[in-house]
Task: structure prediction
Amino acid sequence: DGGITQSPKYLFRKEGQNVTLSCEQNLNHDAMYWYRQDPGQGLRLIYYSQIVNDFQKGDIAEGYSVSREKKESFPLTVTSAQKNPTAFYLCASSGGRPMNTGELFFGEGSRLTVL
Amino acid sequence: AQSVTQPDIHITVSEGASLELRCNYSYGATPYLFWYVQSPGQGLQLLLKYFSGDTLVQGIKGFEAEFKRSQSSFNLRKPSVHWSDAAEYFCAVVGAGTASKLTFGTGTRLQVTL
Result:
């Protein structure tokens, strides 16, 4: 079955450490996204990529970094510069053929807790 | 800039009762509109979407939504709620035919009492 796989589902980190969240899709979608979710704040866009080797900052990119070396993969690194990294992180993709309607397909999420 | 407002943070309904979740959007041109549902600790699942045509759209799990351009609304409805519908619901908008990013509302948490 096609879909989006995020790993790990749960992650604990000490302050000052960088962590990388994995996101892989086999939907052949061009665009991929990372969202952060906090209670009562909905989804906020961190980074997005519309094509391989290109990505743009979203609304809350500070303290995060991404790469898009392959169409299928869009890993997110939460750096030590992120002041409040404890959150639920969601990866998504879009880009059906023949037209990208903007509909997003989501992974199951990764919950990061900073100790 | 596009925006979405979900005025109800939390709604409680009895099982078997009808449900309406409100969504108002702001977008200058033709929007594409979506409703997503999220169970605790899970990703989001698409319930339904509106692109064009009939303003009443049907989705999965017995949900429907009506697009009212004059009111800039896209309210989600269900005639009879089941306990398994308890979840968080998100409305989202994107510009039709653009490469824009989806804008999400802050969500409405639905609680179902037995």
The interface with chain B takes residues 4, 6, 31, 33, 40-43, 45, 48, 50, 58, 88, 90, 92, 99-109, 111 of chain A (CB under 8 Å).
